[in-house]
Task: inverse folding
């Protein structure tokens, strides 16, 4: 299971126990995220793709089902296109499209995309994150903002303050404009693929999921009502059921 931009393994806290009853489950903090190491490198799409492949090599996984949310979904579909022998099935949850900076819809990300060519300014935005800015970001990710409790905000805020995080976020966002070169990966995906989408996603609306479904041969799209950008965390019951049915082939 692969989380999205700026997030961490906590986004899967409502899946790990359920899915591990029938499957061997790995949920990782991506390089530069969560509590992982934050080297000062270029955080390109390839950086993340190869880090996930290297993780699989490191723990001895030859082939797996990849479940990815947001940026994590983009890493997952790129893996399936570049290294099809490593991916048995795909579950893409409100995942990024190749033209991610053009498709993003919430105001904060659109403002960052507009200023990405300006020296240092986007970096300073990430470096200056406060609890209130983290709260606004989390509110953008859900349909029901009452789920974003002070404890949830504090957890994500603490992660955002780990040394090196602003560089990781800035570099990742800047290199997001390189993602369109991976578009051909989508047409090369041959494994069974399920797309799950929160109907009220304010970052990537359902039309993005519909577009990805058309680009991935044989894929299926399931819309989750009353849910936003992280439906596996906001509405885990329906998402877990959909994932288990897909994994069991029912």
Result:
């Amino acid at each position: 299971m692969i989380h999205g931009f700026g997030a961490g393994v906590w986004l899967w806290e409502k899946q790990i126990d359920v899915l591990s009853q029938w499957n061997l489950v790995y949920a990782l903090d991506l390089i530069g995220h969560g509590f992982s190491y934050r080297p000062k490198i270029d955080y390109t799409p390839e950086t993340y793709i190869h880090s996930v492949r290297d993780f699989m090599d490191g723990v001895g996984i030859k082939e797996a089902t990849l479940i990815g949310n947001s940026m994590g979904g983009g890493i997952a579909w790129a893996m399936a296109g570049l290294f099809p022998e490593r991916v048995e099935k795909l579950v893409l949850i409100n995942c990024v499209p190749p033209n991610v900076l053009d498709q993003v819809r919430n105001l904060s990300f659109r403002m960052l995309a507009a200023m990405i060519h300006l020296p240092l300014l986007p970096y300073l935005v990430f470096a200056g994150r406060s609890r209130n800015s983290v709260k606004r970001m989390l509110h953008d990710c859900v349909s029901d903002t009452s789920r974003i409790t002070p404890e949830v905000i504090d957890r994500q805020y603490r992660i955002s303050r780990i040394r090196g995080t602003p560089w990781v976020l800035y570099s990742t966002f800047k290199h997001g404009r390189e993602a369109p070169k991976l578009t051909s990966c989508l047409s090369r995906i041959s494994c069974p693929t399920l797309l799950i989408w929160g109907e009220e996603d304010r970052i990537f609306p359902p039309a993005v999921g519909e577009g990805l479904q058309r680009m991935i041969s044989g894929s299926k799209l399931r819309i989750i009502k009353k849910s936003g950008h992280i439906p596996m965390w906001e509405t885990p019951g329906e998402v877990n059921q959909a994932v288990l049915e897909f994994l069991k082939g029912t």
In short: The first strand starts at residue 64 and ends at 69. Residues 81 and 189 are 5 Å apart (CA to CA). The chain is about 45% helix and 10% strand.
